[in-house]
Amino acid sequence: MNEKKEGTESSLKVFDVPGIAQFPEEGPFVQVLSDTGYARVVLFGFKAGQQLREHHTSSPILVQAVRGKIVFTAAGKQVEMRDGMLVTVEAQVRHSLVAETDAVVLVTMTPSPSFHSLQKELFKE
């Protein structure tokens, strides 16, 4: 059923998250799937051994391991994550990630951050 309220536009976006992910040799794959201002959803594809350097963001985050194994570190604690696991991290908390296997990771930032860099300096091969 496709309902539309008068004066607003309704839309639906569907993402095949594991199907979209890529695994380039030169560094992690990063794609913003959605940024509504209320939330930013970012897809990462990591080859085994690739890393996301320690950094922080102005928004709380939800990190979900969609496929593969990663070691996620935040606030001095390490979590070994595998398919389907989810962690939450408060805003301004430094965190990092290392892929133990090829991995697909989905990160949701709420609200969409006022400042956050997805620049190459975050990644270490």
Number of helices: 1
Classify the fold: give the CATH topology. Answer: Jelly Rolls
| Fraction of helical residues | under 10%
The proportion of residues in beta strands is 35-45%
Give me the Rg, rounded: 15 Å
Return residue spans where pLDDT drops below 50 for at least 5 consecutive residues.
Answer: 1-8
Q: Tell me the CATH superfamily.
A: Jelly Rolls
Question: What is the count of β-strands?
Answer: 10
Rounded to the nearest angstrom, the distance between the terminal CA atoms is 46 Å
Average pLDDT taken over every residue: 87
Spatial order of the strands forming the largest sheet: 1-2-9-4-7
**Level-2 CATH architecture:** Sandwich
How would you sum up the global shape? globular
Q: Could you say which structural class the secondary elements and strand pairing correspond to? A: mainly beta
CATH class: Mainly Beta
Major β-sheet profile: 5 strands, antiparallel
Order of helices and strands: HEEEEEEEEEE
Domain unit count: 1
Plain-language structure description:
Helix content is 3%, strand content 43%. It has a 5-stranded antiparallel beta sheet, with no helix packed on it. It has a 5-stranded antiparallel beta sheet with strand order 6-5-8-3-10, with no helix packed on it. It has 125 residues and is mainly beta. The protein has one domain (17-112): Jelly Rolls (Sandwich). The relative contact order is 0.27. Residues 1-8 have low confidence and may be disordered. The longest helix is centred in the first third of the chain and has 4 residues, at 17-20.
